[in-house]
Amino acid sequence: MEQFLLGEDQLTAGTALKLARGEVKGMFSQAAKTKIGRSAQIVGAMVEKGEPVYGINTGFGPLCTTSISKEETRILQTNILQSHAVGVGKPIQNELAKLMLVLKVHALAKGFSGIRLETLERMLWHIENNAIPIVPSQGSVGASGDLAPLSHLFLPLIGLGKVNYKGQTLPTQELFDQHQLLPLELGPKEGLALINGTQFIGAHAVLVLEKLQNCLKQADIIGAMMLEGLQGSLSPFNQKLHEVRPFKGNQHVAGRIRTLLKGSEILEDHIDCDRVQDPYSLRCMPQVHGASRNAWLHLKELVEIELNSVTDNPVIVDQDNAISGGNFHGQPLAMVLDYAALATSELGNISDRRIYLALEGGHGVPQLLMEDTGINSGYMILQYTSAALASENKGLCFPASADSIPTSLGQEDHVSMGSISGRKALQIIENVEKILAIEMLTAAQAFEFRRPLKSGVLLDEVHQFIRKEVSFAEKDRVFSEDIEKAISIIKSGSIINRVQQVMNEKNIAWGTPFREEFEVL
Prior knowledge:
The protein contains 21 helices and nine strands. By secondary structure, the chain is mostly helical.
């Protein structure tokens, strides 16, 4: 199995997901162990010296002027985990909690946090044994890091809290009894190092990157299929057009759609028709999908910086420097997650417009995408659902990072609310997956009316793939069943895989610039 050196190698969102899914093994090199040990020794020396250092021999937040005796420093670290574990709401999904563990181990293993190797190895044990702490979804304001969720994440280190293990929720002590483990006694600064940081926000951002990329790729494929079904023009995707307004995302999307439509008989059939321009939802796919691509790329850039950063406090530089600052503040990710949420919502918004356009009829496509309407409502009501989802997303787009409520008796007088940014972004993505599923159904239905003409080999293969799961609708049926099948296709990314498989078989290359930047996670 591929190995990743925690605290040393460059962590990407893709690698973080592989570590969380057991596809890559995390380990500590001897060099990392030396750095970790040295940092813990420095903290121990600071305790012995007795000079006040925030969080090591002082209280926390507004209690930073309260001195803590050498004898009480260990109790202080245990108490902080208990007192800060105040999360509420449904637990986050297991994979997010596991991602939090991965991100935290990597950050602490850089050797600037004063944490012991023994503590990091116990965290790694939880990852490798899939004994994942239960973490409530609400309670972080994203300022001194994600205090509440991180406290719940690390309660099991001291034998408290609950874990998900082999599909069951267990008290931590029960898990320890099964594996003959004892709770850890935290050393100086360890509790503070564990709960200061942005790993709740960061884990959400990693999952947003993966899920949004999946939506972006499929939006291009489904949009191209709708273009064919409605006999749209290829002209708006001309390479020269996008070279004179050279946004990376726009050029990338235009190139993808050109590749998807290559060899289309449908395009050739109406090349000399009297339609001058298509509606924006068809014509402006490069500009709208491309803008969302640009937002995704910006998120990726900032997430990769954060994944390889030290975000606790204070930062232990050397024996003379324990720097108290604000690296735990979630604003850098909070703002870009709000931007990504808006970008995702717009992807669903334009998809809903194409669904509506398909129902209008004309150009060889019957109104409501069904020949015998009146007794049949056709695809009319599917668009009601996409409209409801698109509207819900607009409400969710209010930026969480625009708000700040002072906490900690005013010591934390500006907070990021980044945890809410991350949670909302995932909600919006889930809604867009459903909208794209509905567009896929309507595009496949419209596509059918172009027969006997064929599209390019890629879109014809996609259409055949969809038809294996959902048949052509000649009359009304329970369309919710079709929608559920389509949502499963979208979530799995199977049409993306099918397109790439055919490209490999036919030796077709994507005519897209910037492919490495947009396709590699």
